[in-house]
Amino acid sequence: MSETEENLPSERETAHEGAVAKAENPFADPGLPPHEHRVQDIDERAARRSERTVAFLFLVSMLATVGFIASYVAIPIDKIVYIFPLGHISALNFALGLTLGVALFCIGAGAVHWARTLMSDEEVADERHPIEAAPEVKAKVLADFADGARESQFGRRKLIRNTMFGALALVPLSGVVLLRDLGPLPEKKLRTTGWKKGIRLVNASTNLPLRPEDIAVGSLTFAKPEGLEESDEEFNEKIAKDALMLVRIQPQNIKDKQELAWSHEGIVAYSKICTHVGCPISLYEQQTHHVLCPCHQSTFDLSDGGRVIFGPAGHALPQLHITVKDGFLEAASGFAEPVGPSFWERG
User: Fold this and answer.
1) Fewest 10 Å CB contacts: which of 4, 278, 298, 318?
2) What's the per-residue H, E or C state across the chain?
3) What is the mean pLDDT of the chain?
4) pTM of the predicted protein model
5) Of the candidates 9, 15, 16, 13, the residue with the CA atom closest to the CA atom of residue 1
6) Spatial distance between the Cα atoms of 322 and 334, rounded to a whole number of angstroms
7) How far is CA 159 from CA 50, 95, 124, 156, in A?
8) pLDDT digits over 259-304, tens only?
């Protein structure tokens, strides 16, 4: 065996030991670099400047929130403005988005600047501990919390604290104000309709005033108050309460005395709005004088006071007292009770 061959195993062992040494801990902890103090830590004037900066950001947030509320109240919803490079946009949407964005951004920017310039930035290594909360852990957490409260200078920097409280207290008002878009309170609107004494009945299809001879026996005619046009801004809201259906029944077939008294020559007028959930009634059975709601199959007898004979509806259809003047059908009064479904305020 040659000399080279004799030394070969030894060389292999040396190379192997070197590789093992390098790979022994490739992720060794290099340790933390020396802590460098910030200028705010050593110069109180710089700390004061940072304090004023944070307070300024919180103050701007407060002003932006007030601007949000003022914009919501003062700017018309249909106002359009030109803003480069956005083009023609809604002035209200732009103002709301801008002011709310500034309010939220300033709170976030103020909190970040506060943490980066005034709160303690020393890095502390904390060893892992068991999941269970031992008494000493609880004590440590409380101590850390006290240290954090002290290091944040929350009690000392009263200007920051007070302006932060103001900003956080005003921002939620933006959401409260938006509740206005849920609509105005109904007040007494659910109790009344557009029908009053002297209002003529107009055919909902032809838009012409109705005469008694226009209503044939066994037919179903839909009507609305005179003056209510589809082009009206509140047409859908009003027709949801004012929609009327008329049928002509032989007077001897009308079972309810009040219904007969409120009719004209067998013509009876009832609300078209189902008393269950407010669906429009549109199905009429000539032989039985029954009308059926297509939504949940509530059935009403128009020859017996509009009473419920089947289905989930809770009460009879309200009847409109009608009469004739100058040859046209008109209301002798408004509905005696609210139309449509029951509501919690209804007595």
Assistant:
1) 4
2) CCHHHHHHHHHHHHHHHHHHHHHCCCCCCCCCCCCCCCHHHHCHHHHHHHHHHHHHHHHHHHHHHHHHHHHHHHCCCCCEEEECCCEEEEHHHHHHHHHHHHHHHHHHHHHHHHHHHCCCCCCCCCCCCCCCCCHHHHHHHHHHHHHHHHHCCCCCCHHHHHHHHHHHHHCHHHHHHHHHHHCCCCCCCCCCCCCCCCCEEEECCCCCECCHHHCCECCEEEEEECCCCCCCCCHHHHHHHHCEEEEECCHHHCCCHHHHHCCECCEEEEECECCCCCCECCEEECCCCEEECCCCCCEEECCCCCEEEECCCCCCCCEECEEEECCEEEECCCCCCCCCCCCCCCC
3) 86
4) 0.51
5) 9
6) 9
7) 11, 29, 29, 9
8) 999 999 999 999 999 999 999 998 999 889 999 999 999 999 999 9
